[in-house]
Amino acid sequence: MSMFKFRIRFRFEPGDSLSEDTTELIVGTARGDLRLTARGRAIKDADWLVLTGGPFASEDEALSAGRRAEIALLVYALKMGSGIDLGRYRPGGVLTKAGQEHFAPSGGRALQDEADLTVFQDVSGTVFVGFDARGSVARSTGRFRELIAESYGGDEQTDSKLALALELFSMSRLENSPRSRLVTLATAIEAILDRKPRSAASQALIAALIETTRKSSLARNERESLVAALSGLRHESIGKAGRSLVQALLGEKEYNGKRPAAFFQRLYALRSTLVHKGRVEPSAELYGHANTAEVFVKDLIRCRLQNPRLQLREPSKPAGAVKRFSAHLGRWLASFGVRLVEWAEGPS
User: Fold this and answer.
1) Hey, CA dihedral for 230, 231, 236, 238, is it positive or negative?
2) What integer is the mean pLDDT of 122-141?
């Protein structure tokens, strides 16, 4: 019966490596051993490393285990305050058929040494061909073993949103520009937000607004644009969702002298200004904010990993909040020539 393995080719951020003199490191986990190699070189001297696992009975099983190992690598990077390049979007060469024949060992085969996760059939005599070079400085091997085994061997599943946040955090460590770092880190927070539906009263108001807009005399494309914008209001804003999440997870901590909700608000305001204007005022001190944002996002994702099923309490709504919301939207619609009919919040 055919068996399959997974293979992840990755590298640490510039300046990082593992302090391992050997050419192979075995990481024992509750789900089986993982093997870290460096294509025949000492691990501490390698530019790119390869983590393999298996064999598995099916390709799907190998792929699932490989995804778990990727998460384990990203969690390691987060906890070490480092970055890992999984090479997912890196252009590379192609191993031609002639190249495969040239590099294949006798009775074996040669495959492309691609970055990212690869699942392959476990055939004796398989080699991977590729060329790279880069220098680095060593990190502790023991900590690598411990964190990879803990994450890969654990029972907790990491959902796709949290996996994306981990990847964005890791990639932010590879950015030199404070603008890019800050935008990437803010996006990592947005990736794990769970925007709750607004109250039933607000939902009813939005439905009425959508119906009013659809019946208006506006041009079709303008009506569709307004309806799409109104539909997005069915869920709470990113700002509100973010403030609720960071306050629940980070509690009384402070960042640049601000509580988590206030720091998130400032961070997201900077992100919005950068995305829409391309720059911020010099007084914004982007370098300082980007550095603090890294600590903030690192803490936030670590807490989310430790509390994956955390239920955020819905804050109580002040009296008349829906009416104020209605008045605000009514003024906005009026700017397009759409009149909002009188709407009641319901019995008091």
Assistant:
1) negative
2) 55
> Model-level pTM greater than 0.70?
no
Give the Cα separation of 160 and 156 in Å (integer): 13
Residue owning tokens 């303008």? 222
pLDDT of residue 95: 40
- Helix/strand/coil for 184: helix
Using an 8 Å Cβ cutoff, are 297 and 188 in contact?
yes
Q: Is 7 helix (H, G, I), strand (E, B) or coil?
A: strand
In this structure, the strands spanning 49-56 and 84-85 are unpaired
C-alpha count within 13 angstroms, C-beta hemisphere, residue 140 = 8
Q: Whose CA is closest to 144, among 21, 27, 22?
A: 27
Contact 201, 344 (CB under 8 A): no
Q: Residues 6 or more apart from 13 whose CB is under 8 A from it?
A: 82, 83, 84, 85, 173, 174
CA distance 152 to 68: 6
Q: Alpha helices, DSSP H only, in 173-285?
A: 178-191, 200-214, 220-231, 238-250, 260-277
Domains of the chain, first to last:
4-155 (no CATH), 160-196+236-315 (1.20.120), 199-235+318-348 (no CATH)
- Strands (E) in 66-224, as ranges, are 84-85, 109-112, 116-121, 126-129, 138-139
The residue-averaged pLDDT of 52-78 equals 93
Q: What are the tens digits of pLDDT across the range 98-119? A: 445 544 555 555 555 555 588 8
Contact 265, 239 (CB under 8 A): yes
Residue 293 is which amino acid? A
Cα separations (Å) of 25 from 8, 44, 50? Answer: 14, 11, 10
Residue 296 CB neighbour total at 10 angstroms? 24
